[in-house]
Amino acid sequence: MWWTYIVRRALSSIPVFAGIITIAFIATQSVPGDPLAMMVGEDATEEQYEALRREFGLDRPLVVQWGGYLVNIATGDFGYSLRTRRPVNAEIWQYFAASLELGLAAFLLAIVIGIPAGIWSAVRHDRMADHVLRILTLGGVAAPIFWTALMAQWIFYGRLEWLPGTGQLSDFMLFSNPPPQVTGMITIDSILAGNWVALQDALRHMILPASVLAYRVIAVIARMTRTVMIEALAEDHIRTARALGVGPAAIVWRHALKNAAPPILTVLGLAFGQLVQGSILVETVFAWPGLGLYAVQGILNLDYPVVIGVSVLICVVYVVANLIVDLLYPAFDPRIRYS
Amino acid sequence: MTHRIVKFMLAAALAAIALAPTATAQSQQEIWEQTLIIGGVDEPQTFDPHVNVTQIGGQRIYPNLYEGLVQYDASGEIAPMLAESWSVSDDNLTYTFQLRDDVRFSDGTAFNADAVSFAFERLREINQGPVNVFAQVDTVEAQNDHGVVITLSQPFAPFLSALASWQGALFMSPAYVESNAGDDLGVTHMNDHTAGTGPYMLQTWEPENQIVMVRNPHYWGEYAEDGIERVVYRTIREPATGVQLLRNGGIDILERLVTDFAPSLEENDAVQVQTRLSLGGSYGLHIHFNNQLEPFTDTSVRQALSHAIDYGRIIEQVFGSYGQQASGALPTDFSPWFNTDAGQYEYDPELAQLMLDEAGVDASGWSFELGWQAGNANQRDIGQIVQENLGALGIQIELVEMPLPVWREVIWNNTFEMVFVQFSLAYADPDARLWRAYHSSEFRMNGFNPGFLNDRYDELVEQGRTESAFDTRKSLYDEAQALLVDEAPTLFLVNMLYTYAHRSSTNGITWIPSYGPFFDAAQISKDPAGFSQ
User: Fold this and answer.
1) CA distances from B405 to A30, A258, B410 (A)
2) Number of CB pairs < 8 Å for A and B?
3) Is the pLDDT of residue A339 over 60?
């Protein structure tokens, strides 16, 4: 039964979470530097410093602090940011939603462009189209992403002024007619509220960062698809199908792709995790308030609860993505069963 | 075939969405005119002035929200603000303030003497934030509705200056705080809510994204004609993006302009670049010696090394026209306190070698770590020059990049060998820097003194703190500055200017060095002609 499979997978991921929390905790404790150092003024006395340590529970033995994290996170309490004193729960979902939105958009672009591109390249392999595509994808993998981002921003916003340069919504929309927050993903919230003007605005703002983010993933998926499809198309059963008169489209889409699917799915699952966790460089260039920015500032400020919270969240994303991929395998290859 | 058609339609739909203009132009212009957008990188720690310790985060934002009893005027003198007038007793221990009677907090309640004593009481109870700046405050008593008497336990000459600084902007509505006190004196609530007397109040705070402030409906002062209704501080971490936004009108003011971009912006008519003295925005960039560590315990060694640095090259290569060689610990042009005769070290490597020989030390084979603040390109570049300069004497310097918490920690625990520091003035008085960086009591756990213990210096700044006559203080601090240069506990490198840029359509930007880098939004208005689709 697929649902017992899901339950079993969920249970077996509990040790994974505990492990992530532990590793993140050890990492933050091992890094030199004291986050409280930035929280007290230049002229703080030792008593004031100690009082702050107590307030944040940082004077408790390490084992107690570690245990505290395990218990609290299990109940969904990520604690308070050491820097802003706000509950990490309240903050983290907002940033996550922004990254999720961008990541999903990039993911869709990657599938819609990358897979057909890879297939086309495979079908026409070693001809001109294939070579052109391979050069383009090489550019996607080789160019540093912040350079691509800055270039895209400069060309499409700076020079041509076709698209907005930063942010999720234009100031006008933000201050006159923003969609009410439901999911934190502005496009979805706009649809839910029926606010089509805001939806258009939000989509326009997503185009540049999502494309930049997607470029590299498109490159990887296209190349992967190409390789796998070339192999699949060379199989015996394909030759048989051709001999029996099956049309070329059906050959590619119905027969070959099914065999090629599992490795592509795996790559997609990993790519999804990567996209959604927030690309710090893209978020920095486009001032997109996502998880990447939040995480990096948390790390630079040695904000333990933030670092641990973000680590757990990213772990959840990967676990869920991999679970979905595993659930989808049998749809493509009936030989794979849930074990 | 069908999926090709579908794909085409999808692409067409996306293109239509991408390129179509979004809404009618008229209301867009209104929103544009009313909204001031400031791009920067300095995140505030909290919006509670009794908890906040970050100068740069607090200084640039708080004055729009909270006000003090007094303020600095354009020439740096103490002027009335929430207090109309004041008098000081002969023994300099009692300050009597007459408060304005037309001031209200953003929640509508009246500002009065009780609010003043409430503020100091809350500050004392929470025991964080600027509480140590006001450590000399003994009692705060309301005489009547608009008269308040503050007594000090000992004379503190910079008291009015501290009250005028961002740390003195302490006054929040007692009624509002008490009704939101929870179980922590309102610290959690006031973290992201404000109830001050300033021209604006906080609407939303999204850390790492933006701060939105709207007009205080009960503000006692005046706004510029057709002034700003909404102030937005936007965090833009990538300098190139900030410049791009400024060019295209996406933001109105760009803080901390990276000077590499200044020439190209200066050519642009739509943008103005300004360079100013900012006491609050790090005016000084220096390197501390660990004075308790051999061989830096020897004054002549420190003096010798001070001659080994090529200051001219540092200024030229790293700062261009935006800096000059420092002369001690105070900012150049900080009048009237800056001692123009305090002295500077000249770059003279032969003299340096000579002095080291006379001190009887063999510098070749010395090796030190020089810590610099992560992400600070100026420090990194200067570090490389210093590495070369000291290398010429045979001294090996290893540059160590330090994230801020690490940097803070090594300074507090005196575990550094040499380390970069940046000076700013918490209040516009020499005491703010000369005491805090070099008085012997600041050499302690959590202190900023790099191990400099000098009796004569202590005498000078102690007297400077308690003497009230300007002439006396001036001569005391002059001597203190000259002594610092002479004793060289620190490699005094550069005094920097602060550069920012703004759209030409943004008018009314004022600049008071004592409040730098603060932009007074109440005086700003935007020229409608500057709006573009």
Assistant:
1) 13, 53, 9
2) 164
3) no
